[in-house]
Amino acid sequence: MNGQVLHSDVKFVPGVGEARARLLERELSIRTVGDLLNHFPFRYIDRTRIYTIAEATNASETAYVQVRARLMGVSYAGEGRKRRFTVIAQDQTGRMELVWFQGIKWIEKRIEVGREYLIFGRPSRYRGQLQIAHPELETMEQAQSRKAESGMQGIYPSTERISSSLGTKGMYRIITAAWGLLREPIPDPLPAAMRQQYGLMELHRAYYNIHFPQSAEELRQAQYRLKFDELLGIQLNVQSRRSARMAKQDGFLFPKVGEVFNTFYNEKLPFPLTGAQKRVIKEIRQDTITGFQMNRLLQGDVGSGKTLVALISMLLAVDNGFQACIMAPTEILARQHYASFCRMLSDVPVRVAILTGSSKAKERRAALEGIASGEVDILVGTHALIEDRVQFANLGFVVIDEQHRFGVEQRARLWTKNLQPPHILVMTATPIPRTLAMTLYGDLDVSVIDELPPGRRPIQTYHYTDSARLRLWGFLKQQIKLGRQAYIVYPLIQESEAMDYKDLTDGYEAVSRDFPLPDYVTAICHGKMKPADKEESMRQFKEGVAHILVATSVIEVGVDVPNATVMVIESAERFGLSQLHQLRGRVGRGGEQSYCILMSGEKLSRESKARLDAMCETTDGFRLAELDLKLRGAGDVNGTQQSGMAFDLKIANPTRDVQVLSLTRDAAIAILEHDPTLSRAEHHGLAELRRRYAGEEQIDFSRIS
Length: 705
Ligand code: ADP
Ligand code: MG
Known about the structure:
The protein is an alpha/beta fold. Helix content is about 40%, strand content about 20%. The protein is built from 26 helices and 23 strands.
């Protein structure tokens, strides 16, 4: 049975086995044969095209090159005297190096000097020399015996570890093997009539063509079909939720503007609200007096003052006898919200508590008991808020800060904290075009803060390489003398965490040496520190005791120290655009001119260069988001995370496939109108599709690069 084949462990695919199966799971979340077949190429190369060395020099992507081996040998080079095997290869147009660091014995036996080979890999430049590391290699005889189909071969998203275990073409090989295991066609969830109505290829054929295109036209149809299914799956969910919500009139009513709000607004407001903040508060207020349950997405660039809007909305809930809570993605951010709420709400008759994963027994008890008895009005916290033991007496309003960090399921668990669902405000600095957000979320209304608080000077952004470090240090000292503070941020990319921490601690030591006590105080903050130590570092920096904070991207979200005027981002080329923008948003929060310095190595890929240039050119988050989409290939491994949704889309890109998106939206509405529960026999497949895209996964949209 096919169902069984698709669900069986990927280790049974010929050529995979235990070790590679573990790697596939860890690196690409591929567990089953079905997962493997759902791993789609992100582009196709023409394998009938063979490059000369001169042409390969300009090829930025994987290519076939026909070369003759001229010289070969083993050498030891670099740190740790790593063993490498090098072949010098040649054709009429030039020469190049092929290198191997692993499997040397094996490859050594397969290469003969003087013989011609067809090699396949990604050319790069190393010390001015064209090079391919770990290429695939065939003799010309082997190459000629391969049968050419359409000439198009899929290139699969991969990771460094996967390619070094499987080789450049390894993914293609195991997917071919997995396909060979199928005993019957892949079941099609769409009724035949619907396929016909929308001109869709059968699913089985679509899968075949996405992996093994028979022609350019069939590939196009295959892509269209697979995109259609993904977006339809999402739309079936979105439209079902929307109609369920609209059918009910069970939103809490907040008609009253009372003592809490008035005291705060008249006596405590630290500054006049911007026009945009006022407008959004009005929109929220409008929602909470209609009887519908509010589900609102608040978009506003970093530093636009979303927190204050959240606080004021929560006060309105409290005035009407309800509790409110705000969930932040990190401990640091939750503590910061808590501290600023306590400060702003002194003498306002409202009680605030905090609950996080590292709350001590006393704090935890105070929060849990206060919330259950109704004594606490506003609870600030992290994920800890969604734990079952957090029982509210009467939760009426929920704020989710930096929503891109939370999944749909986590949001859903918050709205079941009361018998009747509370009003929900989700806030994000990751802009999604308005129309797109409405189509995607469907059940969310959208508010935008499109105005920064007055008096902000645009941050000046510069890109430096290491040769300018002395100058940079001089600049930092000058700023510190003026009484300002600086962040120095190191990348934290999960694949090589240990190395990242080493960079960070080395950096910290260097900074401490170059900025010696007693004139300079440097603090450090990263995810591996104990919460208490982290907090202490943050406190030192906030209170101005520390002049420099060396940190990982832990500080990326939300931290607010208006006196900090310099943001130095080390190895900036390793960050994605939206992350760079978030980081930059940590400065420029006071009235002083602020600076963002992007440090990078000398050599940059074209894409990294474009990212850093964009940062230097504009501070507009919406423009950067658009650029980011443009720069990124449609199907790179991380690309799916960008779409701004909690679904792992493999092929559709809602920003680009707008037409398919609106078709599937109409299709979903039409189907649900006649069969809202999708219980008709011919709709079983659709029901399954809806379940598959119900959106349990949590994707961290800030880790985009
Ligand atoms: P974000 O939208 O990124 O969450 P915050 O809510 O952290 O932004 O606000 C950024 C900074 O702007 C904070 O220091 C906050 O106190 C300040 N701020 C917010 N609203 C205003 C306003 N209307 N006028 C002046 N400063 C403001
Ligand atoms: Mg914020």
